[in-house]
Amino acid sequence: MHGISIFPGMGYPLEDSLKYLEEASKRGFTRVFTSLHIPEADSALEYEAEAIAEKAASLGMELTADVSKGYMKKAESIGLKLHALRLDFGFSPEEIAELSNRDSFRIQLNASVLDERSLDRLLSIGLDPGNVEVCHNYYPRRDTGISWEFLNKRNDFFHTLGMKTMAFIPSLSGRRGPLFEGLPTVEAHRDIPPLVSAQHLMKGGTDLVLFGDAIASLEELDSLSGIRPDVARVPIRLLADEADASALLSGVHHNRLDPADYVIRSEESRLNKKSKVSPSNCIKRAAYSVTIDNNGYGRYEGELQIVKKDLPADPRVNVLGSSLYGRLLIDMLGPGDAFEFHILKDRM
After folding, report:
1. Could you tell me which residue ranges the 6-phospho-N-acetylmuramidase N-terminal domain spans (predicted)?
2. What is the pLDDT of residues 289-319, one digit of tens each?
3. Three-state helix/strand/coil letters over the chain
4. What ranges do the domains of the chain cover?
């Protein structure tokens, strides 16, 4: 289950936003995040928010609105049909506890700053944990996102309380102003493909991944469709003259149970070899290159590898392309872990 973000009053044509909802819904996205208190939003915010909420409801998508204390009355006056209200700054503990006991919507708390002491205080004054979700921040300013390790630690804490966690990934094509630097939760995700950052969040215990930026490209939406926690989907850019390599890369692979130090070795690749592998592109193997052993390697012919460190050229090894974009996922592959390849459209 994944989500998108839409920002009324930020200059996006309403027609485009409504179409974006339709495209995301068609691809299995079920959640929508919006904010009702962006300082740069214009006077169209209320009208567009109403239209977006109505469209989301018609598609069966659940809408969460981010509000601060100063904008709470505006949110109530608009009368949006909401799944959840994300409470930003300005709310007292008593107000948060009271809102959590309403039946009309769930509340979301800020997972990036809510600590154990604050949560204990809220629980002691009547917070209903069964009506609470937690959602990390996104960080518009470059270099200010949190670390994956911090996110993982916070998520583990909230899971012990039975709370679902959410976090954001940036789009590389549809970045939101005024900075246009992407809206990630984790800083390391700011400039990498959403396919990778989404899976990296999931491996850090994030239950729901949302695009922070609007509007992500259809290709980016498609790349998230069908990803699953038990199989890492690794992007690869093929060399220009290896356009036919998809047959060699297809299917699910498993890292060997006796993992090599320098490479990821596909357990199945030699067994799945369908034809002779002739020498081609026997060039230097830069870190995160994807290679296949050719017939010069004898019984190893057909072995598929992902290189984890720079290795020299070998006339017995063909370089198919690069999975450098997927390094965060590759570095986490352990013994027996499953992976598959997602071929990017652009070539090396």
Report:
1. 3-225
2. 999 999 999 999 999 999 999 999 999 999 9
3. CEEEECCCCCCCCHHHHHHHHHHHHHCCCCEEEEECCCCCCCCCHHHHHHHHHHHHHHCCCEEEEEECHHHHHHHHHHCCCCCEEEECCCCCHHHHHHHHCCCCCEEEEECCCCCHHHHHHHHHCCCCHHHEEEECCCCCCCCCCECHHHHHHHHHHHHHCCCCEEEEECCCCCCCCCCCCCCCCEHHHCCCCHHHHHHHHHHCCCCEEEECCCCCCHHHHHHHCCCECCEEEEEEEECHHHHHHHHHHCCCEEECCCCCCCEEEECCHHHHCCCCCCCCCCCCECCCEEEEECHHHHHHCCCEEEECCCECCCCCEEEEEECHHHHHHHCCCCCCCEEEEEECCCCC
4. 2-229, 235-343
